[in-house]
Amino acid sequence: MKFLRSLLPLVTLSIFISAGPLAAQRGKGLHHRALLVDTHNDCLSAQTLAGRDLAASLKEGHSDYYRFKKGGVDVQFFSVFTGETARTSQGYYHDAIEEIDSLNRLVLRHPDKFNFATSYKEVKRRAHRRRVVAMIGVEGGHMIESDLKKVDSLAARGMRYLTLTWNNSTEWATSARDESGAGVLLTQKGLSEFGKTVVRRLNELGVIVDLSHVGEQTFYDALAVTTKPVLLTHSSVWSICPVFRNAKDEQLLALKKNGGVICVNFYPAFISKEFVAQQRYWNGPGKDSVFALWAPSDTAKARAQWQTAMAAALDNARPGIADVANHIDHVVKLIGIDHVGIGADFDGIGFVPRGLEDVSSYPRLTEELLRRGYSNSDIRKILGKNVLRVVKANCP
C-alpha cells in the first residue's frame, strides 16, 4: 500500500503532462472538422498592388493558400480596400474593381485551391476541405462614390458585404474616427437620407450591412433601417479596450436585438489597453525624449532610434491568445453564444497577438476556447456557424 501511495504523485504528474498534448490534439481535430469563416483579411491588396501570388507558399504577410489550409480556413471574406485617397485618377470605384478582378483571376488560375461563392447555398456546396471558398467584402462606402448604380454593380460582381465607412466619413455616413473627434470635425453625425437608401438597397440585393468602422450614430441609424441581421466584420470590445474602433456594450445589446454578429479583430491595439498605452507613449513623450537626444543635429538618426525603440516596446507589449479569447468571453456573457465570430484583420494589421502570428495559427484559439470550457457546439458557432446564419439571412 505504501508502495502504491509512493507511485501516486508520479501517476498524477504523468496525467498532467499528457493533458496538454491531448487537449491540443482534441482542439486541432475539432477545429479542422468545424467550418471556419473569417470575415476580414486584407491580403488581396498585396496581391493586387505588389503582385503576391496567394496560391504560392509566401514568406511575406500573414496569408497564402497553404497557411489558410494549415489554419483550417474554409471560407475567407477577402477585403476589397482603397484608402481615403484613391490610388489613381479613375477613383475609388475603379480601385475596388481592380481588386475584385485580381481575386477573380486567382480563382480562375487555381480552381484546385480556391473557389468562389456569392450565397449561403454556394458556400455550403463548395466548402470543401481542399479549397478555400472566397467571398467579397468591400471595406468602405466611399467606393460606391455616392452612386446607387455602383452598389448594384459591385453586388453583381460578388460583393457580399459593404462596410458603410472606413476611417473616413462619406457625405452620407460618418465614421467612428470622425464621430469620436479623432478625425475631421463633423457638423452632422449618422446616416443621411441617401445613406438610409443605401442600407435599404443592400437589403434588397442580398448584401450584408457591415458596421465595423462606423460611428455610433451611424451604427444606430443603420440598425433602425435594416430589415436583416448585420455584421461587425472586424471589431472588438470597448469595455476591455476603449478605442473608437471597438463596440460598446450598448451597441452589443442592440446587435443582439438585430440578430447580428460581431467578429473579433486580432489587432493588439483593439485587444489590449496596455498595448494602446505603449503606442501613445512612443508617439508622444517617448518620441520627444529620443528626438531631444539627437535632433536637430541628426534628425535622421533620431527618427531611426525612435522607430527601433518603439518597435521593440510594442513587440514586448503584444497581447496573447488569452487576451483575444477574453473579448469572445465578454460578448458571449453579455449577449450570448450566437452573436460572436472571427474577423482577424490579418494582412491589414502591423502587429499580431503572440501565438496568432498568421492564418495558420487559428487552431490555437480553438484550443484556448476548449480550455475555457466552451462546448464543441459553441466553438462551431464561433468559428463559422454564426456568420453563416447572417449570410443565409441576407443572401440565401
Structure characterization notes:
The chain is an alpha/beta fold and 396 residues long. The protein has two domains: 325 residues, TIM Barrel, CATH 3.20.20; 45 residues, no CATH class. The strands form two sheets. Strands 1, 2, 3, 4, 5 and 6 form a six-stranded parallel beta sheet that branches. A three-stranded parallel beta sheet has the order 7-8-9. It has 17 helices and nine strands. It is 51% helix and 11% strand. The N terminus is likely disordered.
Give a brief rundown of this model.
This protein has 396 residues and is of the alpha/beta class.
How many angstroms separate the termini?
66 Å
The profile of the biggest β sheet is: 6 strands, parallel
Number of DSSP strand runs? 9
The best one-word shape is globular
Helix content: 40-55%
CATH architecture of the largest domain: Alpha-Beta Barrel
Task: Give the key terms.
single chain; 396 residues; TIM Barrel; three-stranded parallel sheet; 11% strand; globular; disordered N terminus
SSE order and pairing:
Layout: H1 2-33, E1 36-41, H2 43-50, H3 65-70, E2 73-80, H4 92-109, E3 114-116, H5 120-126, E4 132-139, H6 148-156, E5 159-163, H7 176-179, H8 193-205, E6 208-210, H9 216-225, E7 231-232, H10 249-258, E8 261-264, H11 268-271, H12 273-282, H13 285-294, H14 299-316, H15 321-335, E9 340-342, H16 362-371, H17 376-394
Parallel strand pairs: 1-2, 2-4, 3-4, 4-5, 5-6, 7-8, 8-9
